[in-house]
Design brief:
With 264 residues, the chain is α/β, with parallel strands linked by helices. The protein has five helices and eight strands, in the order βββαβαβααβαββ.
């Protein structure tokens, strides 16, 4: 059987940080547990959101079998309550291919903490043996490069899970960032707008986007990872059923982001 459902969520409300574009230095007033200024934790309100999100994720149908997360602390902190509720049968993996997007710069952006460090912070569910699908360049990416990177990562993730599954269809949860979430929606559906600033996929904090897979061959064969546009989509294409739904959050949809908000 194969992956039939993918849920995508953006990390919950985080502590803010700033970037000095002239020097390439990041700064935050709230120290990060990883020691990386561009890797802040959730704000207290975001912690509340993560628990509200977990209540809904634990009740989803179809139920979540795999959780993939960006390696940044705010994403891991967001899914931690859900993983605890989902129980020991969940397979959890950290993948840089679905990590944060940084625009092209004249300096190197910070890398996320390595698995060995994350293991000390989240000892119950970090798998140090997992090899990420792709590592984004530290010099940053164009918007098109982000979309192609995400398509490559999704193709690898879906193919890997397809190969592991037994006699039933499975569902994946991905926890990521706003820009990456939008790129995931476009790569899976194959619908890349001519203007990347279009508000086709919304990315509020701790929202839920749900996509279901179109018909695939019995072998679960995926398409070539870069041939995802014009409605083709990664791994045979997907249909979006929920787009940034926030019915589970007491505060509703907040801090949605689009590429028009990017500082390039």
């Amino acid at each position: 059987m194969v992956v039939r459902t993918i849920y995508v969520t953006r990390h919950a409300f985080r502590v803010s940080y700033t970037l000095n574009a002239a020097t390439g230095e990041y700064h935050t007033n709230s120290p990060s547990p990883t020691g990386i200024p561009s890797d802040p934790p959730l704000a207290s309100y975001g912690v509340q959101q993560s628990h509200e999100l977990a209540e809904t994720l634990a009740r989803l149908d179809p139920a979540i079998d795999y959780v993939y997360s960006s390696p940044f602390y705010r994403c891991l902190q967001t899914v931690q309550p859900a993983i605890e509720k989902l129980g020991d049968g969940i397979k959890f993996r950290v993948d840089n291919g679905i990590g944060e997007w940084y625009g092209v710069a004249h300096f190197d952006h910070p890398s996320p903490a390595p698995p060995a460090v994350l293991k000390t912070l989240f000892p119950s569910f970090i798998d140090e043996s997992y090899k990420p699908s792709i590592i984004p360049p530290r010099s940053g990416e164009t918007i098109q490069q982000l979309h192609d990177r995400v398509a490559h990562a999704l193709d690898d993730i879906i193919a890997s899970v397809d190969a592991e599954t037994g006699s039933r269809d499975v569902a994946i949860l991905i926890c990521t960032h706003a820009a990456t979430l939008i790129a995931i929606g476009r790569a899976l559906t194959g619908n890349m707008p001519s203007d990347p600033n279009d508000d086709d996929f919304v990315a509020p904090t701790a929202g839920i986007t749900k996509l279901t897979r179109k018909q695939v061959s019995p072998e679960g064969q995926s398409i070539e990872p870069l041939e995802w546009k014009d409605g083709k989509g990664v791994a045979g294409g997907w249909i979006c059923l929920l787009n940034g739904n926030c019915d589970h959050l007491a505060g509703g949809a907040e801090r949605s982001w689009g590429f028009k908000d990017a500082e390039l």
